[in-house]
Amino acid sequence: MSELHGFLDEARALLPAAVTLRRRIHAKPELGLDLPLTTAAVLDELRGLDVAIARGSSTSGLIVTLTGTGPRAQIGRTILLRGDMDALPMPEDTGLDYASEFPGRMHACGHDSHTAMLVQAVHLLHRHKDELAGTVKFMFQPGEEGHGGARLMIADGLLDADPKPDAAFALHIWPNSKTGAIMGKPGPMLASADTWTIIVKGRGGHASMPHDAIDPIPVAFEIGLALQALVTRRIDVFDPVVLTCAKVTAGTTNNVIPESVEMVGTLRAISEAARDRAHAGIRRVAANIGAAHLCEAEVSIQRGYPVTVNDPAFVDFARTVATELLGADAYVDWPAPLMGAEDFSYVLQRIPGCMLALGAMPDGYDGHDHVAPCHSNRMIMNEGAMAVGIAMHASIAHRFLAPAR
């Protein structure tokens, strides 16, 4: 029997504490970069442990450092384990006893569980610090949901402080997959996410006399359709993008041709080459269709999170740890990236590592199609999955820091 099985037993014993913390955070969700209640809950649970705690000036994020006391620990490697802490600005309709107490806020993406798992991983590894031939840094990060908290913690110097991590690892719960399954892939795991705005400017007028105006509305319609043709005809199907126009705003009443139309949407890609090609295509399509109809099309694109790229060697390492910990069938290779985005991508740009998914399908479900996914107002998870997550964090760190045999 592997020594990692002992970690799984200990993680199961720590599960009640993880559930309690997760529900405390779930009931009081916080948004953005400053999460005083969540950060206080984490610090409460770490009180009394022999760890160092660092904070930056830009966010309420924490880097908790556990230095091993085993042989060669002072010259050993360092690994970073990350858990995000923020919630989403959306209503909760789960009916849970510990549902959000704050209207318009919900932990719908599982960050409450990520935080709870990471806290208990600190406890588990603290028990075994005399076996750690190196250092573990635990990154409790705010602002993942669009605020770039990871990038700001990096800018604050928290990741580069000595000892600088040699590898990084994160888990994300996945309520649509079997509880306890570990899933991932080498290379691009999640997409980049950019936002774009196109303002089509014409000339306003009376709806009965469009020839005396320059109507921007049909021009905007044409641009919207042409952008979909751009995706299918100018982008390699094996290096895909997803381009969505999510909102169109124009006009004030039924008999006035407006002067302008605003279109907004997102662009997602799994390579920088496809991302750049799509950026150029959006600008070209909008400008030239606008010009063809005597309109001006102004395009602005805001670059968001980069592609989340898993280091292939570290994915192989994590797969080995998962199968040893949980069994040969526990690890599932994802055949393709997901087009969602993650700001753990900023960490993986600097440090080799990977993000994997943790199945957390609620009891009573047996298929993907019937389970409310992440970002749903009805998303619930199987809290028992957190025992696997705690054990995975601890096992990855323990095995990574083990001296070469």
Distance between the termini: 18 Å
The low-confidence parts are none
Number of helices: 9
CATH class call of the largest domain: Alpha Beta
Percent helix among the residues? 25-40%
- Annotated CATH topology of the largest domain: Aminopeptidase
Word description of this protein:
Helix 3 links the parallel strand 3 (77-84) and strand 4 (134-141). Helix 1 packs across helix 9. The chain has 2 domains: 4-189 and 308-401, Aminopeptidase (3-Layer(aba) Sandwich), CATH 3.40.630.10; 192-302, 2-Layer Sandwich (Alpha-Beta Plaits). Helix content is 34%, strand content 23%. The radius of gyration is 24 Å and the shape is elongated. With 405 residues, the protein is an alpha/beta fold. The model has no long low-confidence stretch (mean pLDDT 96). The chain has an 8-stranded mixed sheet, with helices on both faces. A 4-stranded antiparallel sheet has the order 10-12-8-13, covered by helices on one side. A two-stranded antiparallel ribbon has the order 7-14. It contains 9 helices and 16 strands.
